[in-house]
Amino acid sequence: xxxxxxxxxxxxxxxxxxxxxxxxxxxxxxxxxxxxxxxxxxxxxxxxxxxxxxxxxxxxxxxxxxxxxxxxxxxxxxxxxxxxxxxxxxxxxxxxxxxxxxxxxxxxxxxxx
Length: 113
Known about the structure:
Blueprint: E1 3-9, E2 14-21, E3 24-30, H1 33-48, E4 57-58, E5 69-73, E6 78-82, E7 87-91, H2 95-112
Parallel strand pairs: 4-7
Antiparallel strand pairs: 1-2, 2-3, 5-6, 6-7
Helix pairs in contact: 1-2
């Protein structure tokens, strides 16, 4: 007999499918329900502001002190832009989400140029 429960870990924004088999609890990591929303918002903001950020997308803070402006900020993600050197910084995404966003960014930049 299988028993399934969905548990959402708010601290880590991860959804687990908890499955009980023969008295043992097995956790399977699932995609967060916020992942699609975060990516959708990030893709739209980057697409709308691509002309100002054609030269890069990063998930770490710059260390040289470039002046940044906040394009979007909510409880889950923050998107900053450097107008002077034309690049984006995004925070709050997992590595997989960032890689998906980077792939999207590269495809629209190549089409733009």
